[in-house]
Amino acid sequence: MFDIGFFELLVVGVVALLVLGPERLPAAARTCGLWLGRVRRSLSSIQSEIREELRVEELKRTSAIQKEQLDKELDEMRQPFEQPFATREEPKADPSSESSSSDNAEKDPQDGKSR
User: Fold this and answer.
1) 83-111 confidence digits (pLDDT tens)
2) Are 115 and 107 in contact, with CB atoms under 8 Å apart?
3) CA-to-CA distance for 36 and 41, rounded, in angstroms?
4) DSSP assignment of 38-83, as one string?
5) Beta-carbon count within 10 A of 20 CB
6) Residue 4: pLDDT above 90?
7) Kindly report the CA angle at 55 between 50 and 61, in degrees rounded to 5?
8) Is a pLDDT exceeding 70 seen at residue 52?
9) Exposure string over 57-81, b if 16+ CB within 10 A, otherwise e
10) Considering the entire predicted model, what is its pTM?
């Protein structure tokens, strides 16, 4: 987050020693450490909550997309079965096949010869 090197920490420590003195410096460092720890925990808690919310939103989005795909596939599967069987159009026979069927009606069904 912040780019603080060893030299910067050394300068802050020397200034704190000069300003606070050797008696109050350990207590001030401990207090500062406690505050930094609380801030870090708060930030990590906030980050984890944000990550969790983003994950939940992503799951909602992907589940909605998958639901749409499944609904589309289900509609495609239902489509042939929506029409009743009686109302479906039968394929029309060719006129040439009707004349051959009348010829077949005149044949004897047992021996296949014409009468």
Assistant:
1) 655 555 655 655 565 555 545 555 555 55
2) yes
3) 9
4) HHHHHHHHHHHHHHHHHHHHHHHHHHHHHHHHHHHHHHHHHGGGSS
5) 14
6) no
7) 125
8) yes
9) eeeeeeeeeeeeeeeeeeeeeeeee
10) 0.49
Distances (CA, A) of 72 to 62, 67, 69, 83, 84: 15, 8, 5, 18, 21
CA distance 68 to 54: 21
Which tokens sit at 96? 């040439």
> Mean pLDDT across the stretch 48-66?
97
Residue 79 is predicted with a pLDDT of: 82
Distance, in Å, from the CA atom of 62 to the CA atom of 81, rounded to the nearest integer, reads: 30
Rounded to an integer, what distance in angstroms lies between the CA atom of residue 27 and that of residue 33?
A: 10
